[in-house]
Amino acid sequence: MTKVKAALFGLAFGDALGAPTEFMRYEEIIERYGERGPRDLPPRGLVTDDTQMTLAVASSLVDALAHPPLTAHALEPLLRDRFVVWLADPENNRAPGNTCLAACAALREGRPWWKATVHGSKGCGANMRVAPMGLAPGLTDDERAGAAQLQAAMTHGHPTGLAASELSALAVRWLLDGLPVAELPAALRARCESQREVYRTDWLGDDLWRRPMVDSPSQFIATGWDECLSVLTGLEDQVRYVGPDADPCVAGGAGWVAEEALATALYCLLLFPDSPLDAVARAAASSGDSDSIASLAGGMAGAVHGVDAWPADWYGRIEYRDDLNRYAAAWS
Ligand SMILES: [Mg+2]
After folding, report:
1. Which superkingdom (predicted)?
2. pLDDT digits (tens, 9 = 90+) for 126-149
3. Which of 152, 158, 228, 265 satisfies CB 3.0 to 4.6 Å to 122 for a cystine?
């Protein structure tokens, strides 16, 4: 129970720690915060679009789960509604991603999602918000995978965004269920291999994959799994070669794209498997997409360690704490 709450709050804490550093150079971050990065939540605990959109996904999922079974048909209109609400929210002023803005504007016009989506985009907006698909109890891995890919596909149509979103959701789930952090990279790589030619028509329909130079659904999705597998390969070795006092983006990539955000966040966990605060501070002290990397890292670290992972006073200072508490209660 407490681990679901720690994961939800953890992703928000990471987002808030990384928000000020997203557009700072690595050297500037270290100069301001020290070698190991920002370690205290700013007084107002402001988050960014990562947490806002995670809450949109969580809200959609809670409503969909009230009327099982969970299907694309049930979930898509709810996601569309919450994404459009987020688009118009006056608080949507936290450096939102261009892909999300463009796709949500097209969703608002009522276009089919497979036409509204930005086909070429694999930005980390696809997976920075996917944790609810791993946190909700009682779903099968197939349901988590399908829902994770659908929520990604509605804005980010690139197959790597889909694969990385599935992996990001399952990572949170598997950690909640007790998989040791050290075993997670291999488990995710095995998933890349087992799912390589699995196109989820029941969740994605028969239109998304039809792109220039693509001959089949399995060929479309294989591209995404291959890119994820590539960035997850050798990640454990980077712990030794790059180490805890260096920019984590050297190991996993800058994280502006989905598979790198996951890899760099996971790398920060591998650096500090027993210290969630060190992991998320390292993620926030990164040259790339710091808030998204730290948000992904915070969600995973919370799923491992439970509520004691984070300083007690942070829970009362973070923005959107009432929403986070509501979903924590619903899924615990
Ligand atoms: Mg953000």
Report:
1. Bacteria
2. 999 999 999 999 999 999 999 999
3. 158
Task: Report CA(50)–ligand 1 centroid distance (Å).
Answer: 5
CA of 332 to the centre of ligand 1 (A): 26
CA 294 to ligand 1 center in whole angstroms: 10
Q: Is the dihedral of CA 305, 291, 269, 243 positive or negative?
A: negative
262 CA from centroid of ligand 1 (Å):
14
Q: Distance between CA 294 and CA 173 in Å, rounded? A: 18
- Domains of the chain in start order, with CATH, are 2-330 (1.10.4080.10)
What is the DSSP-derived secondary structure letter of residue 330?
H
pLDDT higher than threshold 70 for residue 195: yes
Instruction: Determine the distance separating the centroid of ligand 1 and the alpha carbon of 92, expressed in angstroms.
Output: 10
Q: Which residue type does 325 have?
A: N
Residue 1: predicted pLDDT: 52
2-18 residue pLDDT tens: 999 999 999 999 999 99
